[in-house]
Design a protein that fits this description.
- The chain has 8 helices and 7 strands; from the N terminus they run H-E-H-E-H-H-H-E-H-H-H-E-E-E-E.
- The chain has a domain of about 150 residues: Alpha-Beta Barrel (TIM Barrel), CATH 3.20.20.
- The strands form 2 sheets. A 4-stranded antiparallel sheet has the order 4-5-6-7, covered by helices on one side.
- The protein has about 250 residues and is α/β, with parallel strands linked by helices.
Length: about 250
């Protein structure tokens, strides 16, 4: 895909990047001037393939989970800016669908639920000094708005949408999938037992509070389709990759 993007002079966005070797290919392509951006997801930063031994199909995702060494190396590419965005690849499969992997892993559909745990995981990473809080905001919001030219999104300033997430940085808690809000909570088993530091208190969309203290408060119909702007941000959008951890 990198070769095709270079030949066609096209923008390329790589999703679910899970391998440090692949991340290094992105670095080399950027050095050659290829217009490439990259995204990864929580399983590839907070889980290892050992989770498959415990959770079978409930830990199956595509690409597959990697070794602890690969996870550690992938964090280096998050810190240095090679990885632009962290998404969720939220996959709300039913428990009975994922349970098929107990006997044959290939029968379980791939993917985990990540919407509810994404921000707490990244706040925990910040509390552990894996990266700085401004970088967390960029990975989860600002950079995606730049890449996909979403007008009014990804920034806090006059004229932008008042999309805000209020968090409690000091909240310490243990994740338990049984207390998740999603109806596909069984598909979050692989994160069970994780000690987290940081919790979402309230979420605002265009100035309206849509979530508060564990309850959805938004009204049906409040969501709006957001169309892309006309001009795509340039590679890096002014964000230079620092050398080594922040």
């Amino acid at each position: 895909m990198l070769a095709i993007a270079a030949e066609a002079n096209a923008a390329l966005h790589i999703v679910h990047l899970s391998s440090p070797r692949s991340a290094q290919l992105v670095v080399e392509a950027l050095d050659r001037g290829v217009d490439v951006t990259a995204e990864t997801c929580p399983p590839y930063l907070f889980l290892t393939r050992d989770a498959l031994a415990t959770h079978a199909g409930f830990a199956k995702c595509n690409p597959p989970l990697r070794s602890a060494e690969d996870v550690a190396a992938l964090w280096d590419y998050v810190r240095d800016g090679t990885i632009d965005v962290i998404g969720t690849d939220h996959s709300p499969f039913l428990a009975k669908e994922k349970a098929r992997g107990a006997e044959n892993i290939f029968l379980a559909p791939p993917g985990l639920c990540g919407l509810e745990i994404l921000v707490p995981l990244m706040l925990t990473a910040a509390s552990e000094q894996r990266l700085a809080l401004p970088h967390v905001a960029r990975l989860l919001s600002e950079r995606a708005a730049e890449i996909f030219t979403l007008p009014g999104k990804g920034r806090i300033e006059a004229g932008a949408d008042a999309d805000l997430t209020l968090v409690d940085l000091g909240a310490e808690w243990t994740f338990d999938h049984r207390r998740a809000l999603t109806r596909s909570r069984e598909n979050m088993r692989a994160f069970d037992g994780m000690r987290l530091r940081g919790r979402v208190v309230s979420t605002f969309v265009r100035g309206a509070r849509v979530f508060h203290e564990g309850e959805v408060t938004g009204q049906p119909g409040h969501g709006r389709f957001v169309r892309r702007g006309e001009t795509r941000s340039s590679v890096g959008a002014g964000f230079s990759r620092p050398k080594g951890p922040e």
